[in-house]
Amino acid sequence: MANKKNHKSALKENKGVSQPEITNNNSISKLKGKRETQPSANDLINGILKGDITALSRAITLVESKNTKHLEKANTIINACLSKANQSIRIGITGVPGVGKSTFIEAFGKHLTGLGKKVAVLAIDPSSTITKGSILGDKTRMEDLVKDKNAFIRPSASGDSLGGVARKTRETIILCEAAGFDTIIIETVGVGQSEVAVHSMVDFFLLLKLAGAGDELQGIKRGIIEMADAIVINKADGDNIKPAKLAQVEFNRALHFYPLKNSEWQPKVSICSALQNEGITDVWKMICDYETLTKQNNHFDLKRNEQNKFWLIQTIEEQLKSDFFKRSEIKKELKNQLKLIEKNKTTPFIAAEILLKL
Amino acid sequence: MANKKNHKSALKENKGVSQPEITNNNSISKLKGKRETQPSANDLINGILKGDITALSRAITLVESKNTKHLEKANTIINACLSKANQSIRIGITGVPGVGKSTFIEAFGKHLTGLGKKVAVLAIDPSSTITKGSILGDKTRMEDLVKDKNAFIRPSASGDSLGGVARKTRETIILCEAAGFDTIIIETVGVGQSEVAVHSMVDFFLLLKLAGAGDELQGIKRGIIEMADAIVINKADGDNIKPAKLAQVEFNRALHFYPLKNSEWQPKVSICSALQNEGITDVWKMICDYETLTKQNNHFDLKRNEQNKFWLIQTIEEQLKSDFFKRSEIKKELKNQLKLIEKNKTTPFIAAEILLKL
Predict the structure, then answer these.
(1) A229 Cβ neighbours under 8 A, 6+ residues apart
(2) From 3.30.1490.190, 3.40.50.300, 3.40.50.150, 3.40.30.10, which CATH number describes the A85-297 domain?
(3) Are A351 and B171 within 8 A, CB to CB?
(4) Cα–Cα distance list, A221 to A94, B23, B187, B230, B242 (Å)
(5) Do A348 and B309 touch (CB under 8 A)?
(6) For the segment A123-145, what is each residue's pLDDT rounded down to a tens digit?
(7) Is some CB atom of chain A closer than 8 A to the CB atom of B11?
(8) Model confidence pLDDT, tens digit, residues A260-306
(9) Contact at 8 Å (CB) between A254 and A207?
(10) What are the residues whose beta carbons fall under 8 Å from the beta carbon of A215, sequence distance 6 or more?
């Protein structure tokens, strides 16, 4: 109980930037004494590479900071960690609120630490860019996993844009990997563009679903099924088992409507009850099969390399656009041109030329 | 026969920029005498607004030109035509080569001119950005439609990029509408990103398919079905009728996997034989139903307005990117940074910062 309470308050405090870390209660922290004196980049690098959770947390706080000096320090640390990163499997998990993501991740994470894995759970929450909230921070969740010394749970970073949040998460992955975490779970909620961002930073993308009344496939956000390497139907317990199995058949059929992926992996549908800890081993086995296949056919590395290129180009393009559209003369003239377009007094192309010449 | 031959040679000649127009043989051209003296923008505007095909063709040639003065003249003409544009239904038609697009468009177009409509057929061909070819220009196609005085057929513009070709097509639509064409058909082949471009400039998007052996739904390019307002299974004649009806059932099921569109239109699947002129009236009836529905619920205008905004932002973004990446110092350093990323010696974000500071 003491542990749980400490965790709660740590999560709450972490919502402000002033509190630099969430410390895992069982972690051995050689840096604790230095907390008030700002450890150097080298201290943090050494700490991370030794698997020290406090050093990892402080480095992530630097990554998430808006202070230019902090960010420079963060870049130094990331650069030093790069050669030790990449030795992991990165798993994206999405699903609408209520699907049981935290219960699933807790059961799944505990299963993995039981196998001797070191598990880091991160989150991308598009709403945090507006509300500065945090999907992992607001509630007491994953109570068992948070006490596990081989697990590290970090609430989602807030930021001004999804791109910014995504960048912080990508860099946090590197730090976690350098600290020895071999299984990285990235959670997101099934709204906004966050799935695309998560899909572009993980090796395996898992869609959590519920069996329910009516047509199972209605209301699935466009494109999500295409991205999924697996669909897992959760809460398959009690009276829900039959509808879950029915949903499994339907989703399996839906997956066949899509062409085979470049990975040569045929997406699978499985059912589980995270609450009753059933079907969890199957999900892990499936991910291991995926890893084996894609490491054999070289798709695993190829995909990571493509993702890196994607983020490079994406970051540049985002910056170019944001630099352009935040100029006050552009803002003013854009409004003007949009009105003219709406009245059929100019074309989008002529309007664009005028704006680009400003 | 004379007409047909003239048309062929007109199409061939038009592949170079030197020949300014394809003239419809039955068109009344008051400008013919002026052909060598470069009609003024005002001459062309007046011609277009009177429905003169030669004036229309010459104006389109200006739109497609790379000469800055031509483009300025084109902009003047477009601006003058804008208030007379927009009075049409714009229909996008896609399908892989061999699906019978030209036979379908010919049968469909003839049906429409029979109803007193004026039909313009344009094309977007992504391969033309590489080969400078043209999907409507290379072959003798639509032999009957081309002789019809209420039809206007224009091969796809070539260009350096899909964005450039799309822009030219968008502007050509405006000119055609100002010339009194009330039904605009935009054809594209089922490769590349051209469907997305066409989808973003039409009111109704139609996917032509064939019934064949095996699973009908395998091999459909991702996202195309989502964009379709209708799937029409062509060549439903003779022994093909049964498989076509089977395919209709399968596609209908597939369409139900997607959430209802903003237009409130439930996409439909129909079968036809363009060769035997069967099922063509049904397709037109379906499009009329769509128009009635979306004009009632205001989605028709809303969509056009959204499309205009999309093209404005799209054009600006494309230009910003192209200006950035064509700089020689960027090209050089990009290669360098990509190598470092591949070797895990930097992150995409740090690399992006370096490039953006150049």
Answers:
(1) A204, A205, A206, A261, A263, A265, A267, A268, A290
(2) 3.40.50.300
(3) no
(4) 12, 47, 28, 20, 33
(5) yes
(6) 887 665 544 445 555 445 788 89
(7) no
(8) 788 899 999 999 999 999 999 999 999 999 999 999 999 999 999 99
(9) no
(10) B256
Find the closest chain A residue to B80 by CA distance.
Answer: A345
Instruction: Answer whether B343 touches A (CB < 8 Å).
Output: no
Task: Tell me the chain A residues in contact with residue B221 when contact means C-beta distances shorter than 8 Å.
Answer: 259
Q: Taking CB atoms and an 8 Å limit, are A222 and B259 in contact across chains? A: yes
Whether A240 contacts A253, CB under 8 Å: no
B263 against B96, higher pLDDT:
B263
Q: Which of B170, B324, B337 sits opposite A320 (nearest CB)?
A: B324
**A209–B contact, CB cutoff 8 A:** no
Of A141-155, A300-314, B157-171, the one with minimum mean pLDDT is: B157-171
Q: Which residue has the tokens 């009690």?
A: A238
Which of B259, B305, B346 is nearest residue A219 as measured by Cβ atoms?
Answer: B259
Is B256 in Cβ contact with A316 (below 8 Å)?
A: no
Alpha-carbon gap: A7 to the closest alpha carbon of chain B (Å): 32
- Nearest Cα neighbor of B120 from B158, B87, B96 is B87
| Strand pairing category for A268-271 and A230-234 | parallel
Spatial strand order in the sheet of A268-271: A151-153, A119-124, A183-189, A89-95, A204-210, A230-234, A268-271
Burial class (CB in 10 A: 0-12, 13-18, 19+), B356: middle
Residue B209 DSSP label:
E
CATH 1.20.5.170 describes domain B38-84: yes
Chain B residues in contact with A326 by the CB 8 A cut-off are: none
ipTM topping 0.85: no
Best to test chain A binding among B316, B322, B338 (most A CBs inside 10 Å): B316
**Would A38-84 and A85-297 be classified into the same CATH topology?**
no
Cα–Cα distance for residue pair B316/A90, rounded to 1 Å: 35
